[in-house]
Specification:
Blueprint (H helix, E strand, L loop, with lengths): L1 E5 L5 H10 L4 E5 L2 H9 L5 E8 L3 E2 L1 H9 L3 E9 L3 E4 L10 E4 L1 H6 L1 H4 L6 E4 L3 H11 L4 E5 L1 H6 L3 E4 L9 E8 L11 E8 L5 H11 L3 E9 L7 E8 L3 H14 L3 E7 L5
Parallel strand pairs: 1-2, 1-3, 7-8, 7-9
Antiparallel strand pairs: 3-4, 3-11, 5-11, 6-9, 6-10, 12-14, 12-15, 13-14
């Protein structure tokens, strides 16, 4: 099976791929999330792994648009505990460092630790593990990466400060994307969908009330303005449900009473 990820060996996406699909899968690394989505849409990859939200930094909004634009389906979700480590070439200390490079999300998740060292220049990069790799390949002195323990081991870097994330119970939610809607083995109790709300008073309140009456528990709601129709909004919603019948009734009612409804996936919640 070909599995597309954003990042290189040692990245968090790579960890998720190995944990869920094993060493026997063929990992296809890409620099951007859009390339991951495109590889699934054109059939190059059977599955694409994409981070969608973090318990500290929140949602990765552009990724919702990619799922929609490339008409992909969510097959599964996975929560990975995130541990960030400060690492550099061996033989250095934090006092020797001039800059720290990592993915913007990783820098944000470690801002309390980094605030203790105002002399450090913080530089955004595309991927946590790629910074670790570049430090080793170019033998960059005075430069540190924030990445995983696996990245440090993979690229021969020394961990100068372990577990530097602000919140120790730090999780990133990953979703597994497919080109076709797939049937899961377990009973679904979670749905991800996009719905357009007409520009009228109380439209969103009406939707939320109806979902509550059908016993759907919203775990995520994100609004995105529609470019074609100013002041109309699409909402990306994740909701959990216990009764499949009530959920189906909610789907019918949304289709009848609101704007366009697009279901990205019905799957099993893995939270907790």
């Amino acid at each position: 099976m070909n599995v597309a990820i954003q990042g290189i060996p040692g990245s968090f996406h790579h960890q998720v791929a190995l944990l869920n699909f094993g060493e026997q899968s063929k990992i296809l690394p890409f620099l951007t999330f859009e390339e991951v989505a495109k590889s699934v849409a054109n059939g190059l990859a059977s599955v694409g792994i994409m981070a969608i939200e973090n318990s500290i930094a929140g949602a990765i909004l552009p990724n919702y648009d990619l799922i929609d634009r490339y008409e992909l389906f969510i097959h599964e979700e996975y929560y990975l505990p995130i541990s960030h480590h400060l690492m550099a070439l061996p033989g250095q200390s934090i006092a020797d460092l001039m800059e720290v490079r990592s993915h913007p999300m990783a820098l944000l998740q470690c801002k309390t630790f980094l605030a203790q060292y105002p002399q450090l220049r913080l530089i955004d990069d595309q991927d946590t593990a790629s910074v670790a790799k570049r430090i080793q390949e170019e033998q960059l002195q005075g430069v540190a990466a924030i990445a995983s323990e696996i990245a440090a081991a993979s690229y021969g870097l020394e961990i100068l400060a372990p577990q530097i994330q602000t919140v120790k119970d730090n999780f990133t939610r990953f979703i597994f994307l497919t080109r076709e809607k797939t049937k899961i083995q377990e009973i679904a109790n979670k749905v991800s969908f996009k719905i357009t709300i007409r520009n009228e008073a109380g439209g969103l309140a009406k939707l939320l009330t109806m979902l509550a009456e059908k016993n759907l528990n919203l775990s995520k709601i994100q609004s995105i303005p529609l470019m074609d129709t100013p002041w109309d909004y699409a909402f990306f919603i994740d909701a959990e449900f216990k009764d499949p019948t009530s959920y189906q009734e909610a789907v019918v009612q949304m289709s009848r009473e609101f704007g366009e409804l697009k279901i990205f996936g019905e799957y099993r919640s893995r939270k907790g």
